[in-house]
Amino acid sequence: MVLLHVPTLVFLLAQLMSLAEAGFAPHHSLSRATERLHKFAIRHSAGLARDLRVVFYGRDVADQIPLGSHKVYCKLPDPFNNGNVNGGNSTSPATATSSSAGHSTPTSASGTHGSTTAAAQPTTSVPVSQFKLQDSWSGSDFYSGWSFWDTADPTHGNVQFVDQQTAQSNQLVGVNSAGNFLMRVETTPQVSGNRKSIRITTDNTYTGGIFILDAVHMPTGCGTWPAFWSNGPNWPAGGEIDIVEGVNDYTNNQATIHTNPGCTIPSNTGQGNLAVTADIVGGLNCAAAETGNAGCGMRSTSSSTYGAGFNSNGGGVYAMAWDDSGIRVFFFPRNSIPDDITAGQPNPSSWGTPMAIWPSSQCNPSEFFYNHSIIFDTTLCGDWAGGVWASTGAPGQDQSCAARTGVATCQEYVQNNGAAFQQAYWEVVSVKVYQKSRQS
């Protein structure tokens, strides 16, 4: 039997009588009574608080609550608000999941699905950026604001790009337990034609800004040709910017631009001159029509920027800055991502030496680049990966794919070795676009 303080019983009976006299208008009357109980408890002892708990919760609960604390709290659940002690609306966890093509898909709270949103609040040590977040995607957000390309590969790959329904039903896209978006290559052991893969493009277009990719894993291995890039209309008139690109077993990223005639790299660009952390490949002329579509590229000197090296390091962040001064590509390994990027307040002037740069002095961005869509794809073979199938010399390709696989052609290898493409997938944490004001 539980004994209560006599004053407590008198006080509680008085409150119950007041409820009865009020006709017990449930929520308002109980709220007023609860407030009076709360004030009364504060003025009295811890023993009184225990008595109140017994009244509302019963003996078992009271016996479990220690009485050693001198602080008295009497914050009771609101029975008309589903037990929410704060009186506000209850919210679902950010990791709640929904089903998509057989996958457990976290419902992300981030991502703007192509709409403008406020940038993340800066920390006290990071200045506010002049760039504002325009678009952001993570997890299942990539199903909105991006279109699945399902027509022939313009680079002549042995690949069949599929629509969203086919991609989901074949589990070529999905969201993993970390909330990251996956884009895979089909791994069916043998195919008679082309192997299924993914190419997606943003519905929005952009002219200038900061484009940030955070990825954990990218496709790698013989026969693969993945890229993260942007492209304008009427190629190459609107320009192309390849931010991440490589083939086969390469380990060093190559960033490249393709333009109309008139855009070049200054002759003094390079390590120790117009500083970049890359080597020029393919010459100084960026015009697609005058270079056999090759454009002008810069290959990183770091083996953690692409392929197996990138993946084993937990990936990292690529950032492309496009403004009146030119176009720059930066790479930050997973353990070296700048605080301003993490805080959503990007400041390219603080990022140090870029991996690649095309200054406006010889390639005016306003003339050669406009209305860009952002693109992910994984081609198989094609003009580049297939063209260097028997070649060596690029970083990571000490042995040719022909020699390593024992297969004479890239096409034959792709058709008959589905298990070889287990590592041919993108795992993307997020893609974010920042601009001073929205410019498409």
TrEMBL record:
Hydrolase found in the keyword field: yes
Signal peptide: 1-22
Region: Disordered, residue numbers: 84-125
SUPFAM superfamilies in UniProt: Concanavalin A-like lectins/glucanases (SSF49899)
Skewed-composition ranges (Low complexity): 84-120
Alphabetized InterPro entries for the sequence: Beta-glucanase-like, ConA-like_dom_sf, Glycosyl_Hydrlase_16
Pfam families for the chain: GH16_XgeA
Entries under CDD domains matching the protein: GH16_fungal_Lam16A_glucanase
Domain GH16: 119-393
GO biological process: glucan catabolic process
Keywords: Glycosidase, Hydrolase, Signal
Molecular function as annotated in GO: hydrolase activity, hydrolyzing O-glycosyl compounds
Assigned protein family: Belongs to the glycosyl hydrolase 16 family.
Descriptive protein name: Glycoside hydrolase family 16 protein
Native species: Rickenella mellea
